[in-house]
């Protein structure tokens, strides 16, 4: 028995997996401020050399931190420190610019399309317009510390926002501008998880396997359809949430 106890006593403790040590190393640098939000971290090759381990081990650590929302990987560019995920209240009409700023981010946007188009029959019917009537169309990518957070694909009824195409959306977001014109009378929201089309992935700088949250929204002003929009959010960078307080008469139907 004495010999058995001695053997048990000198057995080495189970070592922490190296990929956990690498994760801790990266998180410590972020938490101490050595790597700020939006900063590029050491490359996988540099981490392999630093820890004397395999690329597979380093890749696992980086991949898990990306899934946890601490890092963002950009194809062909490297890995960057992620901002805290903004949370959109999808039951409300809010500005993505204000959400990012409220979460301490550095907001910017890029306009990819701002034009007057002819509404196809399906779009026209959905927006209560005549087939091939004029409709404004915009595609903007909103960013936090130069990292794409939202792609906003909007169709706007020109009768309700005739000067929409004249706006400088680097100084005011489309949501802020439209809410200045008139309060929303009614809104419909649908949320869906999907793998977006190639052009959306390219603008959001995500790979072909990353899912997006897609928020489909239609708004009315004074009984007329004002906008039909789809907002795409990379799943690793954004979350959607909402809260409402039911009236007493609604309580029996909540569940």
Any idea what the shape is? Answer: elongated
Percent strand:
25-35%
**What's the overall average pLDDT, rounded?**
82
Biggest sheet record: 6 strands, antiparallel
Based on CA atoms alone, the radius of gyration comes out at 24 Å
Taking pLDDT < 50 over at least 5 consecutive residues as the criterion, the unreliable ranges are 1-13, 86-91, 242-255
Relative helix content: 25-40%
The gist of it:
The chain is of the alpha+beta class and 255 residues long. It contains eight helices and ten strands.
Q: Which key phrases capture this entry?
A:
255 residues; alpha+beta; Arc Repressor Mutant, subunit A; Chorismate lyase; 2 domains; six-stranded antiparallel sheet; two-stranded antiparallel ribbon; 8 helices; 10 strands; elongated
Can you describe what's shown?
- The chain has 255 residues and is an alpha+beta fold.
- The protein folds into two domains: 2-81, Winged helix-like DNA-binding domain superfamily/Winged helix DNA-binding domain (Arc Repressor Mutant, subunit A, Orthogonal Bundle), CATH 1.10.10; 87-241, Chorismate lyase (3-Layer(aba) Sandwich).
- The protein is built from eight helices and ten strands.
- Strand 5 (134-144) and strand 6 form a beta hairpin.
- Helix 2 (18-31) packs across helix 4 (55-67).
- The chain is elongated.
- Mean pLDDT is 82; it is low at 1-13, 86-91 and 242-255.
Topology:
Blueprint: H1 2-10, H2 18-31, H3 44-51, H4 55-67, E1 71-74, E2 78-81, E3 87-89, H5 96-102, E4 107-118, H6 121-126, E5 134-144, E6 147-156, H7 174-181, E7 186-194, H8 198-204, E8 212-221, E9 224-234, E10 239-241
Parallel strand pairs: 3-10
Antiparallel strand pairs: 1-2, 4-5, 5-6, 6-9, 7-8, 8-9
Helix pairs in contact: 2-4, 3-4
């Amino acid at each position: 028995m004495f010999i058995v106890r001695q053997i048990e006593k000198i057995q080495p403790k189970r070592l922490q997996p190296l990929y956990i040590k690498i994760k801790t190393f990266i998180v410590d640098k972020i938490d101490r401020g050595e790597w700020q939000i939006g900063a590029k971290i050491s490359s996988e090759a540099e981490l392999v050399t630093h820890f004397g381990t395999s690329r597979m081990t380093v890749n696992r650590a980086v991949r898990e931190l990306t899934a946890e929302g601490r890092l963002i990987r950009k194809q062909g560019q490297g890995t960057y420190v992620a901002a805290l995920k903004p949370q959109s209240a999808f039951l409300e009409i809010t500005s993505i610019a204000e959400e990012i700023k409220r979460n301490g981010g550095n907001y910017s946007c890029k306009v990819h399309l701002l034009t007057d188009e002819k509404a196809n029959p399906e779009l026209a019917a959905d927006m209560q317009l005549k087939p091939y009537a004029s409709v404004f169309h915009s595609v903007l990518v909103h960013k936090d510390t130069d990292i794409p957070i939202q792609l906003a694909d909007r169709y706007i009824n020109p009768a309700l926002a005739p000067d929409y195409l004249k706006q400088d959306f680097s100084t005011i977001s489309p949501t802020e501008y439209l809410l200045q014109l008139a309060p929303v009378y009614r809104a419909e929201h649908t949320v869906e998880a999907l793998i977006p089309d190639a052009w959306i992935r390219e603008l959001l700088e995500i790979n072909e396997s990353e899912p997006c949250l897609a928020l489909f929204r239609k708004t009315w002003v004074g009984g007329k359809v004002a906008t039909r929009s789809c907002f795409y959010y990379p799943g690793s960078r954004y979350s959607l949430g909402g809260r409402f307080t039911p009236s007493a008469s609604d309580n029996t139907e909540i569940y």
